[in-house]
Sequence to fold (469 residues):
Amino acid sequence: MSSTQSLLELLSPYPPGWGGVLLAGALSTVLISLGAYFVGIVIGLTGAIGKLKGNRPVRFVLDLYTTAVRAIPELILIIGLYYAGTDGLNRILLALGLPAVEINGFVAAVAVLGIVQGAYMTEVFRGAILAIPVGQIEAAAAFGMRPRLRFRRIVLPALMPNALPGLANLWMCVTKDSALIAVVGYQELALATRIAAGNTKHYFLFFLASAALYLAITLLSNVLFSALETRFRRGQPKTA
Amino acid sequence: MNFSWIFSYWPLLAAGAVQTVLLLVISVGFGFVLAIGLALTQVIGPRWLKVMARGYCTCLRGTPLLIQLWLLYYGVGSLLPMIPGLRASFLWPILREGFFFAAVSFTLNYAAYEAEVLRGALLAVPKGELEAGRSFGMSSWTLLRRIWLPRAIRIALPTIAGEVVLQLKATPLAFTVTVMDLYAVAYKVRQDTLLVYEPLMVVTVFYVCLTLIITRAFKIVEAQVPVRR
Fold:
C-alpha cells in the first residue's frame, strides 16, 4: 500500500473496496435514527401530556422514567434494555403461552434508542407546552373546542417553534448515540467501519471516512432543521 | 437477584470506580483549560484562528465520541509504533494503554462542547462591566483574569454542571478500548458469574450517586455568589 491510488480503491463503493459497506452502514444509521426519533416523538408527546395533565401515580411514573434515563449512561441503558428487553418480551410471551420470538436487531435498536429519546423528548415537549401563552389555549376553549381539537389545532402548532431547537439537538444526539448500537453487535456505520478497518488494517483511513460521513449527516440535518424552524416561525414577530 | 458476588469482586469494583472518576477528572480538567482557549479564540482571535476553532468544535460535536475514540485508539494507535524510537522510550508504557487514548479523546471532545458553552457565556458578560474594568486602567490580561473570565464562568455554571454529568455518562465508552473502568468490571462480572442484571444495577447505582454528587457540588459552588433576582 504505497500510493493514494490504493487508498482510494479501498474506499471505492464496489468490492474489493469497502465504500459500499460504509454507505450501507450509514444508511442503516440514518434509518435507525429516524425510527428511534419517531418513537421518541410519540413517547415524548404522550409523556409531556401525562406529566402536565396526569394524576399523581402517572406523574410519578413519568418522573421516574425521565430521571432514570437521564441519569444512567447511554451505553449501560442501551446494553441493559437490549438484553433485558428481548429477554423480558420472550418471558412475557412464554407466560402467555405464546412461542418465543427472535427480535430483529433493527427493531431492538430502534426501540431501545426510542425509549432513551422519549425521556428527553418528554422534557422538551413539556417545556414547549408550558411556554405557550395560556390565553391562546383559553381562547380556544372559549370557542368551544374540545380538548382533542384544541391540541391538534392550537397546542401542537404553537409548541413546535418552542420545541424545534430542542428537537434538533435531540436529532443530533440520536444520530451519534446510534453508534453505541455497534457495541451490542448490530451492523450500522460504526460497526461497519470497525469491520472494514479490521479487515484491511487501515484503521486511520476508515475511521476518518466514517467520521466524515457522520459529520455530513450532522451538517445536512443542520440545514434541514434551520429551514424547518423558519417555516414554523413564519408569521411570528422577529425578536432582536 | 443474587448479590453475593460483590464480596469477591469489591476490590475490582473499587478500582473500576477509581478509573471512571479519574477519566472524568482528567477530561473535565484539561478539557476546561482547552475550552477557555478555544472560546477566547472564537471571540477575540484573528479571523483564520476563529475559523479553525469553529471548525474544530463543529467536527468534534458532529461526530460520535465512539468514532473519535476508535479513530485515536485504532487509527493513531496503529500509526504510533512507526515513529522511530518511540517504542523504546519511557513514554511507551503510557502510550500503549487504552486509558491514555480514552483520556485524550474524552478531553478533546469535552473541550469542543465546553468551548461552545463558554463562547456564549463570554459574549453574555455585560459590556459595561468590561468597560468599567478598562476605565480603571486594567490591561487586557488583568481584565480577562479578574472580570471577563470569572463572570463568564459564573454565567455558564449551570450549563457546565450539565456538561460534566454528560461527560460522566460518556466514560463507559472507555470499556471498548480495554480500559478497566466501572462498566468494564460489570462486564467481567457478567462473564464470570453469568449474572446479567445485578452487576449492571450496582454500576447504575454508582453512576446515579456520582451524578447526584456532581449536581450537589455545583449547587454549592453556585450558591457562593449571591444572585439578585
Q: What stands out?
A: The longest helix of chain B spans residues 5-44. The domain at 23-179 of chain B is CATH 1.10.3720.10 (MetI-like fold). The two ends of chain B are 50 Å apart (CA to CA). Chain B touches chain A at residues 58-59, 61-68, 70-71, 74-79, 168-173, 175-176, 183, 196-197, 200, 203-204, 207-208, 211 (CB under 8 Å).
